[in-house]
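Project outcomes to date are best conveyed with an example. Our students and postdoctoral researchers have been running inverse folding experiments weekly, and each run begins with a structure described purely in tokens. The record below, which covers 185 residues, was selected by the lab manager from last quarter's runs and is presented without edits.
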């Protein structure tokens, strides 16, 4: 299906690094409950990809009926070496609860906190808190929607590990292997 095509397209460029595939928490739980996790790992074996080269970018994790079911669905994937990311992390009781139970490798904070982080004190304070949380839980923090040099510099000074956004490069069908000139400068 979709994951198979994503892997084929990614492999065509003989890539370095990891491929992250978006998946809803609900779908992940359904796959686990129907025995679909082993076929996912088999798909990687068929493509001769080590699981550590793939990650799942989990969405909708605050809407699953059972965090325990989500944790159980992720366990065999994590045990195989796959990375787990929580997408669009919003600071709420439910999000923090999922974070502490799932213990992801990467937390992708909602773009609300990235926007104007260089000039809005509330955003800067929240990002600082998230940096401390990620450090305490041994995971990386990723800023989404980085749109300016000022935001990127501020996020770096605050200790954010990773960034994505139009300032760094526009979405494209073919992956890029280096930063655009303005971001590199």
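After processing, the design step wrote out the following sequence:
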């Amino acid at each position: 299906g979709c994951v198979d095509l994503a892997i084929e397209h990614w492999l065509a460029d003989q890539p370095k690094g990891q491929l992250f595939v978006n998946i809803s928490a609900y779908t992940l739980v359904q796959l686990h409950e129907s025995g679909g996790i082993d076929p996912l790992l088999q798909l990687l074996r068929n493509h001769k990809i080590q699981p550590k080269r793939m990650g799942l970018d989990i969405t909708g994790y605050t809407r699953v009926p059972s965090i325990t079911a989500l944790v159980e669905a992720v366990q065999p994937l994590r045990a195989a070496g796959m990375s787990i990311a929580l997408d669009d992390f919003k600071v709420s009781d439910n999000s923090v609860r999922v974070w502490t139970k799932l213990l992801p490798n990467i937390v992708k904070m909602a773009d609300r906190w990235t926007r104007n982080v260089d000039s809005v004190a509330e955003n800067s304070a929240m990002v600082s808190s998230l940096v401390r949380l990620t450090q305490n839980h041994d995971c990386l923090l990723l800023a989404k929607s980085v749109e300016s040099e000022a935001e990127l510099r501020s996020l770096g000074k605050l200790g954010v590990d990773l960034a994505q956004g139009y300032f760094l490069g526009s979405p494209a069908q073919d992956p890029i292997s280096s930063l655009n000139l303005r971001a590199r400068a």
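The two ends are 40 Å apart (CA to CA). Strands lie at 19-24, 54-59, 83-89, 106-109, 140-143, 162-163. The training component of this project remains on track.
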